[in-house]
Write a sequence for this structure.
């Protein structure tokens, strides 16, 4: 045991061993691993962040059942403002100690309002000018964090003494827990796959960073081996070195986390912004990070030392290494593909099968990229003979040490593969989720739903008098259950009214139309007998024609609706607007401001995505953001490795420059040296990414779509990254090739 | 090693008795082999005959008669010629070289020049030997190498002395 | 005829004056040894002469061309085409085979790979290292490596070969062999050799020597 410890200690001493070089190496390792650790810790904070957000959301849910008369009446009054969404409610306390939602000190009285800080900012800013008329109340305070989802929440709570008790507005308490909820399965899986795909490269970088200055260290350890250190001891010494770097990296990583935490509430995406205090890694995940990073560092360094241990002399003399073997490198690829293939179609319906085969499959396939790359690069450069001296220098270098180069670009390749995967999955899923809303942006009417309990017969007249409104149409809406337990909405209106929401060119009274859902699930068939839940009445769906539109479901002309039970319908008014007036929708909404919670408005011309699409958009944005961060990390690691390589090869570079080899040739050889593996790895990673995407999409039983533009974009960025990094190493090449490089150290 | 040139060099500092000369010589160059009186007087009389020194009076007193000797112009020229001529490169000549360096320093002449001249001569011989070696057979090579290594040792000594001239000058002046 | 002349060279690194008014003149085809103690500025003088390092002041003239006024690219090309270089160690590209190392300067001048390697083979045979043609420098002995370096320096038929302590890392026998082959080959092709060394036996392969001391050179035959 003592021997083991002293060997480890020797390794640590070699890592920090006083000389400037070893400090530089340790600093580079610490920085590289530190960045990875910070990213991992951020990821480990996500459960806390979203858990807290869910908890706060749950704490706000109203309890609608209780004994006696409810102490509080609450009407939902969320409003849309341009592309923002302001959630909130109007309340009336019936008793003095009425329950209050979290985050407020007291309930607002009549004409009082509590707003979130962000809403207060918006109302105070010029951009909020057209929102102000809707909130004429006196602001009596702002929400404390526990009353909001996140720091960027737009939220209000207003008092209104005119609220009358009805079936739907009684509140006994806050804090109703609902089972389930959360993300839809497909988005949940997308997030998990995304996290795996994005975090895996981070682990790859931990090993890249651990292997910084590897050649030099290999030679040193080989020398130790040659003077008689046993294989086990050399492994221990190497582990000690790796441990030192990993520990420094952990410290740096925690430091980075605390440094970037305060920035979390400035993230301009409301769906992503979190309170800094929410950005706390969960204890189990923190432990996983703290343990796995050093273990990974030690494992990579020991694993990478196979050659040093087997043939130390060859390492010292820079002999041509032994040929890489293929067989074990294809196992992850095959295994991953097989695992994913076995899951085809299992995630299609509402069922929630096991998640681990998907995750394991994704991890295995991702691992295939760094496993296969060195072999592929070696095979590829074996054939190239080098047409120009620059190419020859690069190829020979790659032949001697394909591993380093492959590792250098391998990290980028993994990110690239991951991002491409995500894009394929996103493209498939998006196509699935998205309603056919391509024409929505041309819609010109504001759709106004009226609160069931408070009919507003004068609303059409008010609207008709509003400047900017050129026509007013009314629809009736009701809901029914289809025989296969789906829900469908049924809207009744004249042809003119229907045309505001459905794309109809020829409409005749007596006809029925259907705007189908994207995947066809829950759509009624002609002849189906649908049931109205409230009254128990039934209705047979007549023959219909399919159309596109802004709303889904059946659209029935009055003549065809003869047998429909219309006792439980809500009114929906379509106000057609003069779109030449700027912000006309906001002006019309302001005209309706006195109705506050009694109406709910949607302007499809602006708010062009459904709720699931918004969530989807948020997930997509988050994934892309994370991909960008990972790519930047990749770039930084690449740069560190690139500089390191130039430093290691200083003497031959200087001698070549002295004997008149043009710097251009040396620079070109550097470009080739990164470029050849880059091209190979781009091909491999785009291939792997597309394959992975297709396999996962198939597991969700979705149609495969390719986001070629996106793939091209990410590929371009990765290629650009390598080119940029190569360019950034040129100044150090310049320094190394100066005459000073010739002087003995 | 030429005792005559050494004595001439010493006389450059000013006229001296024979006995004085012997003492000065022994002090500087004679560490393990002091001069005999006989050697001093026979050398002086040869120098006198060649006109390199002249008698500069007799000092009366007790004991043996004490003649003082002074260097002539011809003697100075001879010393100069001697310092400027490299010794024939051969083993074991450090005595002479050392004497030359010291006398150059004593008389304010350039000791570096003495050393450089000698280095040139040594290298010249080494070049000849190297050439002979490359053209010759193994026996030639071995013999030449023997000489080369010895000459190289001399040259290294020359280098070292050159590097320490300042220090030597200090000590000689004392 | 004078090939390469340097006059009044000054060069300082920080506060140390590496060259303090050094001058030298090299004639066609002669072998000149630059000697002097360590730190005297021998290597710096060589670097300036070869156009690797621009001096702070002074002139270096190669065949009526003023090196000190040429730009980096032009000097690079001159070094590649007119000069050859042998350093103490670490000059061979470790990834390339010995043959490829020798052929590199020819290929940089645009020669076809096959022709370049044929010419290189001949030179390697002349320097008795054709047996290691397909090995990498790391797999050869020190003496072989230096002879490969000499072959690479001579393969372009340079007018001047600069050799900076070419035998510094070798034992006597290997050192002499390198020197013998280098000077013989240079004399045969008419190349001048500028040889920086502190070893008299190595300098003995020269035609004459120039001593550098404290950044000043004493070129005995420096006439102008």
């Amino acid at each position: 045991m003592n021997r083991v410890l002293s060997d480890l200690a020797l390794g640590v001493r070699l890592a920090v061993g006083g000389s400037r070089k070893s400090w530089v190496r340790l600093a580079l390792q610490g920085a590289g691993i530190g960045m990875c650790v910070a990213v991992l810790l951020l990821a480990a904070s996500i459960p806390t962040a979203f858990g807290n957000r869910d908890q706060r959301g749950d704490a706000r849910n109203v309890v609608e059942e209780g004994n006696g008369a409810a102490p509080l009446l609450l009407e939902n009054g969320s409003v849309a403002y341009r592309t923002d969404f302001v959630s909130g409610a109007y309340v009336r306390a019936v008793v003095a100690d009425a329950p209050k939602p979290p985050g407020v000190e007291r309930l607002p009285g009549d004409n009082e309002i509590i707003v979130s800080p962000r809403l207060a900012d918006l109302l105070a800013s010029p951009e909020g000018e057209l929102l102000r008329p809707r909130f004429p109340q006196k602001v009596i305070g702002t929400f404390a964090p526990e009353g909001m989802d996140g720091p960027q929440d737009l939220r209000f709570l207003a008092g209104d003494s005119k609220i009358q008790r009805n079936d739907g507005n009684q509140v006994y308490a806050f804090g109703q827990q609902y089972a389930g909820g959360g993300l839809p399965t497909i988005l949940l899986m997308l997030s998990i796959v995304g996290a795996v795909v994005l975090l895996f490269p981070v682990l790859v970088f931990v090993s890249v960073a651990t292997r910084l200055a590897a050649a030099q260290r290999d030679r040193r350890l080989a020398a130790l081996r040659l003077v008689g250190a046993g294989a086990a001891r050399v492994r221990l010494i190497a582990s000690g070195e790796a441990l030192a770097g990993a520990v420094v990296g952990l410290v740096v990583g925690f430091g980075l986390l605390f440094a970037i935490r305060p920035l979390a509430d400035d993230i301009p995406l409301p769906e992503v912004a979190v309170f800094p205090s929410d950005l706390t890694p969960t204890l189990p995940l923190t432990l996983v990070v703290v343990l796995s990073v050093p273990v990974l560092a030690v494992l990579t360094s020991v694993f990478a030392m196979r050659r040093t241990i087997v043939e130390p002399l060859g390492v010292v003399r820079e002999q041509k290494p032994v040929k890489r073997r293929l067989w074990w490198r294809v196992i992850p690829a095959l295994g991953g593909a097989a695992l994913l293939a076995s899951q085809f179609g299992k995630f299609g319906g509402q069922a929630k099968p096991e998640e681990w085969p998907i995750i394991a499959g994704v991890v295995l396939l991702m691992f295939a990229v760094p496993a296969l790359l060195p072999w592929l690069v070696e095979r590829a450069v074996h054939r190239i003979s080098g047409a120009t001296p620059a190419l020859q220098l690069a190829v020979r270098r790659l032949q001697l040490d394909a591993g380093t180069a492959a590792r250098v670009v391998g990290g980028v390749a993994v990110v690239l593969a991951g991002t491409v995967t995500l894009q394929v999955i996103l493209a498939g899923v998006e196509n699935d989720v998205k309603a056919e809303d391509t024409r929505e942006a041309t819609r010109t009417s504001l759709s106004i739903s009226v609160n069931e309990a408070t009919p507003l017969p004068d609303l059409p007249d008010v609207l008709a008098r509003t400047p900017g409104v050129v026509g007013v149409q009314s629809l009736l809406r009701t809901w029914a259950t289809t025989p296969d337990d789906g829900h469908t909405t049924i809207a009744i209106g004249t042809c003119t009214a229907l045309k505001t929401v459905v794309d109809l060119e020829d409409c005749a009274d007596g006809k029925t139309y259907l705007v189908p859902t994207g995947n066809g699930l829950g759509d009624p068939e002609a002849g189906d007998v649908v049931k109205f839940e409230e009254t128990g009445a039934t209705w047979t769906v007549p023959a219909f024609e399919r159309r596109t539109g802004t709303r889904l479901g059946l659209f029935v002309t009055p003549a065809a609706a003869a047998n429909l039970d219309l006792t439980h319908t809500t009114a929906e008014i379509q106000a057609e607007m003069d779109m030449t007036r700027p912000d006309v929708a906001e002006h019309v909404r302001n005209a309706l401001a006195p109705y506050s919670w009694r109406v709910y408005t949607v302007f499809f011309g602006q708010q062009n995505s459904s709720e699931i699409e918004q969530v989807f958009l948020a997930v997509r944005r988050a994934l892309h953001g994370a991909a960008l961060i990972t790519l930047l990390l990749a770039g930084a690691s690449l740069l560190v490795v690139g500089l390191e390589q130039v430093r290691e090869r200083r003497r031959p570079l200087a001698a070549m420059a002295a004997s008149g080899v043009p710097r251009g040739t040396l620079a070109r050889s550097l470009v080739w040296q990164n470029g050849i593996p880059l091209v190979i790895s781009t091909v491999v990673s785009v291939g792997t990414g597309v394959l992975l995407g297709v396999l996962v999409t198939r597991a969700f039983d979705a149609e495969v779509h390719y986001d070629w533009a996106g793939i091209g974009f990410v590929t371009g960025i990765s290629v650009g990254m390598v080119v940029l990094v190569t360019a950034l190493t040129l100044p150090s090449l310049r320094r190394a090739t100066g005459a000073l490089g010739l002087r003995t150290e | 090693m030429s005792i005559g040139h050494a004595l001439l060099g010493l006389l450059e500092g000013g006229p001296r008795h024979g006995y004085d000369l012997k003492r000065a010589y022994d002090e500087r160059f004679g560490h393990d082999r002091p001069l005999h009186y006989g050697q001093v007087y026979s050398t002086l009389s040869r120098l006198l005959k060649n006109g390199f020194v002249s008698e500069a009076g007799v000092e009366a007193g007790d004991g043996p008669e004490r003649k003082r000797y002074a260097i002539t112009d011809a003697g100075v020229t001879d010393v100069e010629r001697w310092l400027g001529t490299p010794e024939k490169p051969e083993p074991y000549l450090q005595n002479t070289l050392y004497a030359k360096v010291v006398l150059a320093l004593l008389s304010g002449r350039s000791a570096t020049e003495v050393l450089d001249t000698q280095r040139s001569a040594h290298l010249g011989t080494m070049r000849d030997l190297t050439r002979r070696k490359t053209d010759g057979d193994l026996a030639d090579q071995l013999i030449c190498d023997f000489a080369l290594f010895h000459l190289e040792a001399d040259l290294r000594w020359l280098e070292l002395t050159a590097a320490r001239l300042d220090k030597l000058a200090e000590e000689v002046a004392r | 005829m004078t090939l390469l002349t340097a006059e009044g060279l000054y060069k300082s690194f920080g506060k140390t004056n590496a060259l303090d008014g050094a001058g030298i003149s090299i004639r066609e085809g002669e072998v000149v040894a630059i000697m002097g103690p360590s730190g005297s500025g021998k290597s710096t003088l060589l670097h300036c002469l070869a156009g690797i390092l621009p001096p702070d002041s002074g002139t270096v003239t190669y065949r009526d061309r003023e090196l000190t006024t040429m730009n980096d690219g032009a000097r690079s090309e001159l070094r590649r085409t007119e000069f050859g270089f042998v350093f103490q160690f670490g000059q061979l590209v470790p990834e390339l085979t010995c043959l490829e190392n020798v052929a590199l300067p020819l290929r940089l001048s645009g020669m076809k790979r096959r022709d370049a390697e044929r010419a290189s083979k001949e030179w390697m045979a002349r320097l008795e290292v054709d047996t290691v043609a397909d090995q990498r420098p790391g797999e050869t002995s020190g003496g072989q490596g230096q002879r490969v370096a000499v072959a690479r320096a001579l393969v372009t038929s340079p007018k001047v070969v600069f050799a900076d302590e070419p035998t510094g890392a070798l034992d006597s026998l290997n050192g002499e062999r390198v020197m013998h082959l280098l000077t013989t080959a240079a004399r045969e092709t008419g190349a001048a050799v500028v040889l920086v060394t502190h070893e008299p036996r190595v300098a003995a392969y020269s035609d004459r020597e120039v001593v550098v001391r404290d950044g000043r050179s004493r070129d005995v035959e420096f006439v102008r």
User: Anything to note?
Assistant: Residues 19 and 649 of chain A are 19 Å apart (CA to CA). The radius of gyration of chain A is 32 Å. Chains A and B do not touch (no CB pair under 8 Å).
